[in-house]
Amino acid sequence: MSSPERDPLAHTVRGVDHAAFPTFDPRATITFYRDVLGFPVVHATCALGWGPGEHPDFIHFFFDIGNGDRLAFFYYFGVEPYRDAEIPDLLHRARHLAIHVDGEADLLEYRRRLDSSDWPCELQVRHETVESIYVTDPNGYLMEVTRPLRTITIEDDIDANLSVDALMEVTGEPGPSLEKFFARKAKLIAERYEGEPELVTFA
C-alpha cells in the first residue's frame, strides 16, 4: 500500500523549541532572567567538550519563556569574553530576542521589574501593530518584550507578501533603496489587484 503524497512545503513546525546564545557572565545572566524577569530555569546540560576537534567544556542552561518555548545560554569554561569587532553596533543590536505578552498590564509589569533592577528599560515604543519595551541583557544582547495593539488581519498578510516580493526584486538589482522598494511595491499592487478591488477590503 503506497503512502499518500506529502506536500514538500507542508508547515509542520510548532514554534520555537529554544533560542540559544553564548554568555561570558552566567551569574548576571541567571540573575537577570530568573531573578529579575522571573523566567524559571527548566533544564541544564553539562559536557566535557563536544563535537570534533578542540571544544571547551561547557554548561548549557535553559529558561522557560512560556508556551513550551525556552531561552538558552552556553557558558564555555575558560573562554575569555570577546566580540567580533567587524560587526557594526547596528547589526549587533539587530540580532535580538522578542518575547510577547498578552496586554498592557503585563508589559508594564515587566517594565517595572526592569526599572527596579540593574537593567532598566531603555526604550518603550509603539510600532504599527505592537508596543514594545527594550533592554540590553548582561551579555549585551538586545531583548524586547512586546504586546499586540490590534489583531493581525488578512490585509496584513497581503501586505507582508507584497513587501517581501518587492524586496526580493529590488535587492536583486544594483543600488537598492527604500524609495525603490516603495515604488516596486506600488507597481506590484497595481499589477495584482487592478480590476479586482473585492480582493482587498479594509475595516
Automatic annotation (TrEMBL):
One Pfam family from the record: Glyoxalase
Protein's recorded name: VOC family protein
Lineage: Bacteria, Bacillati, Actinomycetota, Actinomycetes, Pseudonocardiales
Residue ranges constituting the VOC domain according to the UniProt record: 15-148
Organism: Amycolatopsis speibonae
InterPro entries: Glyas_Bleomycin-R_OHBP_Dase, Glyas_Fos-R_dOase_dom, VOC_core
CDD domains named in the record: VOC
